[in-house]
Amino acid sequence: MGGAVEARTPYPQAARRLLRETLLVAGRDEVQRRPWAEITMADIAAAAGVSRQTLYKEFGSRDEFAQALVIGEGERFLDAVDAAVRAHLDDPRTAVGAALETFLRTAGEDPLVRILLSDDGTAGLLPFVTTQGMPVVQWATARLTATIESGWPQAPAEKARLLAEALVRLAISHVTAPGETAEATAAQTGELLGPFIDEALGQT
Length: 204
What we know:
The protein is mostly helical and 204 residues long. The protein has nine helices and no strands. It has helices at residues 11-33, 41-48, 52-59, 62-86, 92-109, 111-117, 134-151, 157-176, 182-200. Helix 1 crosses helix 2, helix 5 packs antiparallel against helix 9 (182-200) and helix 8 packs antiparallel against helix 9.
């Protein structure tokens, strides 16, 4: 028999992934019903059908769970961003603009993000994107850096990271304090960062 055999995910790894997904879905559902400040780890565990001990063993603390919840939601945005970048590899400026526009538009349509943005300071989740958002920024920067390096392998690693972090911080700023439309914001950012994009991605 010819052909490669597809590697199977080991059972413990697959089981843990399923557990995390179940817990995050339960948390997301709870947040859509009431403010994060009113939700306990016991509430999330009960909604997921597991013990509170299991939840703490997987995430460590309530704050770590909140960060994982925000990052899990961000995964969808960055999947869309990655696709937008890969559709314009021949034009880095357009790729960056399309990536930012996609992120802002997708975030603006997301129910959980709308809940975050309606936080008047009592709901409790918004700080995990802003004042306590460093883990989210680091994760998103690493993810976008990998996309840039994959699309433009000639780009110096440090410049790819700087560009990724600038875009992540700009995106978070515009999502949490919206001004112009996603299209206008993306166009303005492309104009502002254009020379650096050309230099960093080898289009000079």
